[in-house]
Amino acid sequence: MIELDNVSKYFGDTRVLDGVTGKVNRGEIFAIIGPSGSGKSTLLRLIDLLDTPTGGAIRISGTEIHAQHEKDLSIRRMMGMVFQKPAVFNATVAENVAVGLRFRGASKSEIDARIGEALDTVGLASYRERRARTLSGGEMQRVALARAMVIEPEILLLDEPTANLDPVSVAMIENLVVRINRDLGTTIVFSTHDMYQGQRLAHRIGVLMNGVFSQVGTPREVFTLP
Ligand code: ADP
Ligand code: ADP
């Protein structure tokens, strides 16, 4: 579903990614594990078309992205992304969730129904008309997750989605990740510096180290010493 082919990214003279190669299969949960500063966000941003690689190719369902603007727009619509810092704007929870649907020109009744479903899923149905900025960090992150899901993305990208959250919120988000993957078949790529979280959630893991995937495999393959 996602192919990374010798992907590199430099910021000026700083080499962040230096030949990342690997594949994410359709329908799997894939963890990018690496220490802080190893380039996890950078890699996710390249996949999400928020930044362009310095070299190499990224293919999604066989189509190279960053190569043709027209195709990139339709591919971007297949993806939802949740950022490390819960990003909600100053409006109601419902408005925050509706954004992607409005851009897609959905009808009001469809938007209402989908917001309801998404908020049910993340356990925030009763918060629909609350101002999003008054929620806790964990709740805001669930709003961000509802916003990413409501467009029914084929690929969900999560950049350290549980960093800085309390343990109850971490467990909730982890539970949602597993359920979204299992019930909707969504391909999920998330980053974490927590190898235990990778082990708990991921079908396969890529270990990002010194600008490359030093290992790619199942948790058992990656964490068992040879
Ligand atoms: P991680 O998500 O693994 O913590 P990042 O992808 O955020 O790592 O960052 C990797 C490195 O790239 C860091 O050294 C960071 O300072 C650098 N970096 C990230 N974005 C930029 C940018 N826009 N300009 C310059 N350097 C950047
Ligand atoms: P458009 O292509 O006209 O920007 P979208 O529905 O793709 O419409 O985007 C709606 C809003 O959500 C925009 O502000 C866009 O930046 C943001 N967005 C869309 N897709 C993503 C994504 N995969 N990751 C992050 N933000 C996104």
Automatic annotation (TrEMBL):
Which one GO biological process term can you cite for this protein?
Answer: phosphate ion transmembrane transport
Its top-level enzyme class, in one word, is translocase
Which GO terms of the molecular function aspect are on file? ABC-type tungstate transporter activity; ATP binding; ATP hydrolysis activity; phosphate transmembrane transporter activity
Q: Where are the transmembrane segments?
A: none
Q: What is its EC number?
A: 7.3.2.6
Chief place where the protein resides: membrane
| Leader sequence residues | none
Q: Which residues form the ABC transporter domain?
A: 2-226
Reaction catalysed? tungstate(in) + ATP + H2O = tungstate(out) + ADP + phosphate + H(+)
Q: Write the record's keywords in alphabetical order, separated by commas.
A: ATP-binding, Molybdenum, Nucleotide-binding, Transport
What are the annotated GO cellular component locations? ATP-binding cassette (ABC) transporter complex
Has keyword Transport? yes
- Entry's family note: Belongs to the ABC transporter superfamily. Sulfate/tungstate importer (TC 3.A.1.6) family.
**Subunit comment for this entry?**
The complex is composed of two ATP-binding proteins (WtpC), two transmembrane proteins (WtpB) and a solute-binding protein (WtpA).
Identify this protein by name: Molybdate/tungstate import ATP-binding protein WtpC
> Which species is this record about?
Methanoculleus formosensis
Q: Which residues of the full protein are shown?
A: 1 to 226 of 358
